[in-house]
Description:
The protein has about 750 residues and is α+β, with helices and mostly antiparallel strands. The radius of gyration is 30 Å and the shape is elongated. The longest helix has 17 residues, at about 295-310. It is about 20% helix and about 40% strand. It contains 16 helices and 38 strands.
Amino acid sequence: MTARALGLGLMVLMCVTASAQQADSTVVGRKKVAVVLSGGGAKGMAHIGVLKVLERAGIPVDIITGTSMGSIIGGLYAIGYNANALDSVARAQDWSYVISDKEDLRNQSLGDKLKQYTYVFTTGLTIGKRNLNAGGLIKGKNLAELFQQVCTGYTDSLDFSRDLPIPFACVATNIIDNSEEDFHSGRLPQAMRSSMSIPGVFAPVRLGDKVLVDGGLKNNYPADIAREMGADIIIGVTVQGAPKVAEDMGGTMSIIGQIVDVNCKNKVEENLAITDLHMQVDTKGYSTASFSAVAIDSLIRRGEEEAMRHWDEIIALKERISIDESFRPVILHPLRPQVMTEKQRVTGYTFENMTPQAEHFLRQKFGLNKKDSVDASLVQELTTSMRIDLFYQTAECRFVSDGDGVRVIVSAGNRKMMQLHAGMRYDIEEHASLQVSAEIPLKTALPMNADVTVRLGKRIMAQAAWTFHPRSFTRPTVSYTFRRNDINLYIKGSRDYSILYHQSQLNLVPFNHDFRHFNVQAGLRWDYIHYLDKLVSDKSNGLVGMDNGHYFSYRVRADYNSEDNWNFPTRGARFKAEYAYLTDNFVKLDGHTGMSGVNANWRMSFTLGKRFTFQPMVYGRLLFGNVVPPIFGNTIGGEWFGHYIEQQMPFAGIGNIEYIGKQFVAAQLQGQQRIGNNHYILLRLAAGQQSSKLKEIFDNRTLIGGQIAYYYNTIFGPVGVSLGYSNCTKKAYFFLNLGYEF
């Protein structure tokens, strides 16, 4: 998964301590103790706090049962995660990622990362008679991967009473016949995933002819199952709040939560009646979706506080259990945190739900027939390739002990048919804009996908791209783009030209290589510029050369981005460089040597304290040649690189597109202060030099600009305002932005 999971399959648990724990429950005369954990979504984090107190009090846990979040906490406790380890696991996750279907940014190409920070809506269609991922807003891909990794060593089919260190059971609901499905065996990650599938939010789990959703609909507090498993003493924890009223129904999640809550009362009273010690944690102010770091911290603390209020009752239970004060249960500590980078010997590979062609592709690409060992890195590469190259919705690798090594089970979900994306934004320059995209895997012998994108607004764009996925390290790409641009060009703050033009562009990129954070491309591009309208200012400085024409260019580009956030990074670096040689006949430009262009930008982020980030950046673009078509000339201004036109470079304090000389270099210092969780204050200072000749670049006046901005980071993109001023335009700059940039 990611660093967001607590170390790629967090711990390998040792069975020596397991046998010791089970031995404790068979002490002559001692009663068996069961802990029962209710469902409740994020509110179930409170269970961890209760478990901390039970461990502190020396209460043995011989059986554990749970529903929904209770099944997750209980299942992990049953395989050896003590309360402190569970606390660490819960806090280590980026839950906004885990409970989504986003790809891990570290395993995506830079193009895929850009899509993730462009579109606010993504959905997909799959091929097959049964869509195993349908039925919920979230397929649960990342949840399933997290469960697979934190359950390392317990991912095969098991008997939960015989094969786990602590006997365990959890509950799901089969919506085919509205029956209760009790898991006493099977694959532990799948059982936990089934138990927490909130209807309408997470896609159900299909198991044979069963369609399984959240177990809370039938048995949200499974004390009866604990009793059936032989429990003499039951300690139970519930996290449901007070009944809601109409005023509490303020959003989609609150409504879905209420639907689940009112259907989660089955058996509750009967099961509470057979509970020896019941603890009801106060979760007021939190919902099933309260997965923020602050909420998790508070919920765990409230669970601990609730258990401490029952401390005397907990200690009194020890006498009923028939243990004395000197007794200390064996708590299952993972003996050593082991990040799964150690290689394991492989005895073979088994491919499930995959075509022979897909299996052959993976064997050839990763040389599996020659590999006799596997580690987390190879597993990650395999699953990523299955989703990106072979277009499977989900991908999984699990290990099964096989003699002196492990057999790797490579399992795929349904194939993608089409992935749809939609993004929208508003700013005061272009007003409303809409962009939609469709990714279409093609049924070809060589894996290939088509990507169609349309942008509507003041700037109109349509693009079709075809990417080939051979077994080699390159992914050749062919794309065609049409743009209709209506832009204003300024010189020293005065509007010089208003231009309406069409641009057709064909890109042939035979070399296109991605690896961690990095992309390198080399290819050929054709551009055709057709001017529809040119309005010249009375004070025009006389830009010339705006004629219709065909251009051919050779291009090499390198792009690196290790920043931890696309919009508000706190660490990492971003670097992009490109060289282009522009001609009109593949050799020369207007009878002269072609135009050479070199551009680059480099930014780094350094965190000072917990909330302040310092971000220095240097950038520039240098053009060489006797002829420079104005449409390819240097421009600065605005918030982003390449926003209005391809060669645009931002400059603090300039909002419009300012036309500058052939040589331009600049430096920017930005301070980023986070306030709360999602509020940001940005302060930018920039200085630049421009000239028509490189040797004279420092002879001209230095351009200086400053800008202050406030942004609120929402799930729909950054929302904020900027104020700035520069000595180039000598005008105040105001900009309002709503949404992701595109």
